[in-house]
Amino acid sequence: MMALGRSFQLADARQHPGHTERRPVLFISVPPAATPKMLVSEFARFLGMPLTDRLNQTQITGAVCDLLCELGTQLVLIDDVHLLDTQRRAGAETSDQLKHLGERIPATFVYSAIDVETSSLLSGVRGAQIAGRFKIFRHRPLAYATEQDRAVWDDLVGAMEDLLRLRAHRPGTLVKHASYLHARTGGRIGSLSHLIREAALIALTEGTERITKQLLGEVELDAAAEDQAGPVRRKQ
């Protein structure tokens, strides 16, 4: 979701050079047990709008919609929509709030969710309305079978490696072991991020400040990757 937003924003900047006041992308996550006011307040916080307790839901919604139209927002990314339990009143009302925002803001809305087909979000009358307005794209773990698959995965590993700030780390080490990293993580981006982050933290605390294949092999995987590759425990 963030990569999509970043790519869209960079493309918009190239199309509108010098227009720094534009805000083409908005990204929020649905809060747990969200209410309509909580949801639209997340919009406001992303935009840096000041909020006070005296502002009600209608006032915040109006201000957010007006500002997003003024800023030229074209892409609204909303993560964790599976947290909306539309079988409960608060979740149903928050779902209605999302529908209202989609009607007020001239932008493309993209929702991200886990097991959305089995959630209450797409059930009932409200769910039918949502299903009729969106197309579902199922994100699967990245493959490593073709040359194109490997190029995408290698670029991802390289991008994560470029973010490391370890003094003794040899650049290109992780890309060299991209195939191994894919086997360890099953092609899951979150698992890859977890593995590299944990290895970096160990390298810092132990003072080596470098990530090696041996260190990667000793890091305990997250639960999703363990289901794919089996548990690996770091040696004590």
Structure characterization notes:
There is one protein chain. Helix content is 53%, strand content 6%. The protein is mainly α and 236 residues long. Helix 2 (36-47) runs parallel beside helix 3 and helix 2 crosses helix 4 (89-104).
Please outline what is shown here.
Helix content is 53%, strand content 6%.
Question: What sort of overall outline do the alpha carbons produce when their principal axes are compared?
Answer: globular
With helices defined by DSSP (H or I, 4 residues minimum), what is the helix count?
11
Proportion in β-strands: 5-15%
Radius of gyration: 21 Å
DSSP helix fraction: 40-55%
Walk across the major sheet and give the strand order: 1-2-3
Question: How far apart lie the N and C ends?
Answer: 37 Å
Uncertain stretches: 230-236
Mean pLDDT: 90
For the biggest sheet, the summary is: 3 strands, parallel
Specify the structural class. mainly alpha
